[in-house]
Write a structure and sequence with these properties.
This protein is an alpha+beta fold. It has helices at residues 2-14, 26-30, 74-95, 146-154; strands spanning 34-37, 41-45, 51-59, 103-107, 119-126, 143-145. It is built from 4 helices and 6 strands, in the order ααβββαβββα. α3 (74-95) packs antiparallel against α4. Residues 1-17 have low confidence and may be disordered. The structure holds zinc ion (2 copies).
Length: 155
């Protein structure tokens, strides 16, 4: 009974209301401007930037959120970080924004906005400043830094 209910919930979160995943549809992402793309990941600007620079890195494979990850995804997540760091550094230089205190992390279910795994890559300052709280781990696990996630996937 519980499994069935859980499965239902899971199916609900997989798709957006129109039945299509917005991040699986690259033509939609292209409108925000793709900054980097390879066979595994895509990097682009967040449509609703909450800091001086706010990029997203997503896997091309549809993965719902961090709870769907296991040790087999370690290399993929590590690659997302490598790409995120490189692209964000380049954007910092291009926009003359400090690359100190860069933030890389994920929201965790049910605090996820789009049901396709996306790594937030952020160069502060946050705008407005209280958006900092959205990208900070708390007791209710709304957010996880990529470093912590990689540690968890390793063990
Ligand atoms: Zn998707
Ligand atoms: Zn998010």
């Amino acid at each position: 009974m519980f499994t069935r209910w859980k499965k239902k919930l899971f199916e609900m979160t997989i798709k957006s209301p129109n039945g299509e995943c917005v991040f699986c549809d690259l033509s939609q992402i292209k409108t925000s401007g793709i900054l980097y793309e390879d066979e595994r990941v895509v990097a682009f600007r967040d449509r609703r930037p909450r800091a001086a620079l706010h990029l997203l890195v997503i896997p091309k494979e549809h993965i719902v959120n961090t709870s769907a990850l296991n040790c087999s995804h370690f290399e993929l997540v590590e690659h997302m970080l490598t790409v995120g760091k490189r692209v964000l550094q380049e954007e910092c230089v291009a926009n003359q924004i400090s690359s100190k205190n860069l933030v890389f992390g994920f929201h965790q279910y049910p605090f996820t906005s789009v049901d396709h795994l996306h790594l937030h890559c952020i160069a502060p300052p946050f705008m407005p400043f209280y958006n900092r709280l959205r990208y900070r781990a708390t007791w209710f696990s709304n957010y996880i830094s990529i470093e912590t996630l990689l540690e968890q996937l390793k063990s």
